């Protein structure tokens, strides 16, 4: 499976958004693979690499002008949208992408519970979007180290933890569990 081919399918033109997506996704991929090499070499490195490249593909349809997204959908929906895009691509191209679709759905924050979706009135279907497999957890974790806005450099762990705290103790606890799982400190 060629993740760049899929990205080019949805982002055929060389645009600032595609460049930003590729830069961010490569940063997440490289961080995830570095963690994998140190803490979890038994994981599927090809799934991790391609999944990291595809995890944010849904930003294409979202509205977030600060990060060059000029679509119409709320940014919080980009994971669900990306999953839908990959499932449709899989159907029309005769390929299996379900593992990648689940990565898209489950990487936002430290994952989202159905209760959190309802409580915050998030504009996505109210169900659990928690990373389940080790590969999903690894990509979710690696993604937190990089932003698509402002400073694109890797964030320090304490800054990430501080920003996670604004979403409450449960998301921070999930993030800390992922850090412990992969010996990230």
In short:
With 185 residues, the protein is mainly alpha-helical.
Low-confidence regions: none
| Class of secondary structure makeup | mainly alpha
**Count of DSSP helices?**
9
User: Major sheet: size, sense and barrel closure?
Assistant: 3 strands, mixed
Helix fraction, binned, reads 55-70%
Q: What's the shape?
A: globular
Give the termini separation: 32 Å
What does it look like?
57% of the residues lie in helices and 4% in strands. It is mainly alpha-helical and 185 residues long. The chain has one domain: Hypothetical protein af1432, CATH 1.10.3210. It is globular, with a radius of gyration of 15 Å. The N and C termini lie far apart (32 Å). This is HD domain-containing protein. InterPro entries: HD/PDEase_dom, HD_domain, HDIG_dom. Residues 22-145 form the HD domain.
Summary tags:
three-stranded mixed β-sheet; mainly alpha; 9 helices; HD/PDEase_dom; 185 residues; HDIG_dom; HD_domain; Hypothetical protein af1432; 3 strands
Spell out the blueprint of helices and strands.
Layout: H1 3-10, H2 16-39, H3 45-54, E1 62-64, E2 69-70, E3 73-74, H4 78-93, H5 98-106, H6 114-119, H7 134-143, H8 157-165, H9 169-181
Parallel strand pairs: 1-3
Antiparallel strand pairs: 1-2
Helix pairs in contact: 1-3, 2-3, 2-7, 3-5, 3-7, 4-5
């Amino acid at each position: 499976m060629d993740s760049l081919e899929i990205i080019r399918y949805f982002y055929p033109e060389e645009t600032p958004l595609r460049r930003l997506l590729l830069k961010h996704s490569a940063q997440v991929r490289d961080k995830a693979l570095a963690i994998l090499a140190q803490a979890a070499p038994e994981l599927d490195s090809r799934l991790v690499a391609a999944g990291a490249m595809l995890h944010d593909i849904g930003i294409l349809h979202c509205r977030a002008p600060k990060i060059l997204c000029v679509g119409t959908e709320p940014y919080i929906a980009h994971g669900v949208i990306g999953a839908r895009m990959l499932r449709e691509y899989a159907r029309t191209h005769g390929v299996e992408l379900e593992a990648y679709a689940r990565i898209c759905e489950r990487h936002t924050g430290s994952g989202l519970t159905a209760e959190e979706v309802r409580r915050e009135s998030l504009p996505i279907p109210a169900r659990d979007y928690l990373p389940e497999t080790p590969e999903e957890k690894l990509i979710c974790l690696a993604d937190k180290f990089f932003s698509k806005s402002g400073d694109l450099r890797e964030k320090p762990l304490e800054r990430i933890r501080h920003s996670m705290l604004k979403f409450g103790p449960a998301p921070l606890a999930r993030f800390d569990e992922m850090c412990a799982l992969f010996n990230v400190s």
